[in-house]
Amino acid sequence: MVKEKPNSTRIYDKDGYRRRAACICVRSEAEAEVLLVTSSRRPELWIVPGGGVEPDEESSLTATREVLEEAGVIGKLGRCLGIFENSEHMHRTEVYVMVVTQELDEWEDSKTIGRKRQWFSIEEALTQLALHKPTQRHYLQQLRNSKNNSSPTANCIHVVTDDPAEDELLERDADETGASNEEENRTTSPSPPEEEENTTPTATTEEAENPPADKDDDDDPATDAAS
């Protein structure tokens, strides 16, 4: 299901890129855990909350509004991580850090589309985002890089997220993490009895490692606020 927002209007910058904003929500100042929400299109997968900037709206306000709508959290907005450009889908997302101070029991998207939220370690979040939103892994990389940098919000850096070399590196990291988890499972899982034959059809390695591709929620040209 794609979330449709009534009366939403797309906002573009001078270069023709759609303007978006998002928040990396952290549990504490230590920034060891981040909050992800389920995708509206594929609810078994996790994404960073965010959406389109509305007319006459500052990107920082967009970020706080979107996390309230999508994740049901309120917090203290901190530094800007950067403006992340995706030239393939023609949007630029201004990403902020928010320290969460309140988690609502119910929120807009939980009631309308059944969206869920969950805390992940940085490593777990990187693995989850690799499944559906690999470009959002750049947000977490920048979170790590900027943790000890007290630069003000006004100094948001410009990050191009569709650089082939960097994306290849991120994908390789995800593959290595998956291989490590698979090896650990083989080591700790008991072997089945030799005399029993498993006749249940299973997914091939290629199918397991490469789930069917799907358009990113916020990249759908027909929906401005889908996320």
Automatic annotation (TrEMBL):
Matches recorded under Pfam families: NUDIX
Keyword field: Cytoplasm, Hydrolase, Magnesium, Metal-binding
The keyword Metal-binding appears for this protein: yes
One term under GO cellular component: cytoplasm
EC assignment: 3.6.1.52
Cofactor(s) listed: Mg(2+)
Organism domain of life: Eukaryota
Record's subcellular location: Cytoplasm
Positions of the Nudix hydrolase domain: 17-144
One GO term of the biological process aspect: diadenosine pentaphosphate catabolic process
Family: Belongs to the Nudix hydrolase family. DIPP subfamily.
Listed name of the protein: diphosphoinositol-polyphosphate diphosphatase
Organism: Psorophora albipes
Classification of source organism: Eukaryota, Metazoa, Ecdysozoa, Arthropoda, Hexapoda
